[in-house]
Specification:
The chain is of the alpha+beta class. It is 33% helix and 24% strand. α4 packs antiparallel against α5.
Length: 276
């Protein structure tokens, strides 16, 4: 049985101010998220694809951790790989430096673009417009959160043509030191759509759900709980057989959005109103 072709397009990127690195990817390939995206806070992000060499992920992160630049990592990984001409690789390092590699044996259209803070690459694409859309959308969305920029970029790439074989899977990985669940994980977002007719749309839906459960509304946008709102909350909890908002929120996986009783996150209030 031959080696799998991971024909895909991907975007590695970082937000140095936020201390975040991430990868978004899509492919006509089952479970692309299990192979292509790699990232580590303070080190960098990597995408490995096209007859993907899985070792490029952990080995590349190890090199980034040692302080090598993105271009040095690409050179090291590909120089040691006899099959490098069939590989495609994108790397963003700890300083936002980037590098991309497309071997001469990759199936067309294949190529990449990189700039400060991002590396975009793809193979078996409709045209170069897919990679152009990744790069240009990322550049145009500067100032937005990294997760949103990655999702907007991959959606624009699909609209520009995408994988010429069609769609099947997509994934989003974003890391930040202690930025994950309860501050005990470095994984801010790790979402995968393994098999779906519209994987990018599904990835966006999952991210919207992820943000609702684990995101954070700025405290100045929380609603003060006055007597009228406190009475409403109590009545709605009673309909659900509950007496404590924090207990109900924990059951609904919204505990990360509870902090005291004098103010309420509007996401929690909307969820409570929908449930009762």
């Amino acid at each position: 049985m031959g080696r799998p072709i991971v024909a895909t397009y991907s975007l590695c990127a970082c937000d140095l101010e936020a201390g975040q690195w991430g990868v978004v990817t899509e492919s006509k390939f089952l479970a692309v998220g299990s192979i292509v995206p790699w990232a580590e806070p303070g080190a960098g992000a990597i995408a490995t694809q096209s007859f993907a060499n899985w070792r490029y992920g952990p080995d590349g992160l190890a090199l980034l951790r040692q302080g090598l630049s993105a271009s040095e990592v690409v050179e090291r990984l590909t120089a040691a790989d006899d099959d490098r001409e069939q590989r495609q690789l994108g790397v963003v390092d700890a300083q936002g430096g980037s590098a991309a590699f497309t071997g001469s044996g990759c199936h067309g259209w294949a190529g990449g673009r990189n700039g400060h803070g991002y590396a975009a690459q793809g193979n078996i694409l409709v045209s170069a417009e897919t990679v152009d859309a990744l790069a240009e959308t990322f550049e145009a969305t500067a100032g937005k959160p990294l997760t949103e920029r990655l999702l907007e970029s991959v959606a624009a790439a699909q609209a520009a043509g995408g994988d010429r074989r069609g769609q099947q899977s997509a994934a989003l990985l974003v890391v930040e030191r202690d930025g994950g669940y309860a501050g005990l994980s470095d994984v801010l977002v790790d979402l995968r759509v393994d098999d779906h007719p519209r994987p990018i749309d599904e990835l966006q839906r999952l991210y919207d759900m992820h943000w609702a459960l684990f995101g954070s509304t700025p405290r100045d946008e929380w609603l003060p709980v006055d007597e009228i709102l406190r009475a409403e909350i109590g009545e709605r909890l009673a309909r659900l057989g509950q007496t404590d908002l924090a207990v109900w929120a924990a059951v609904e996986n919204l505990e990360e959005r509870i902090d005291g009783s004098d103010a309420i996150d509007p996401v929690v209030l909307d969820a409570l109103r929908s449930a009762s």
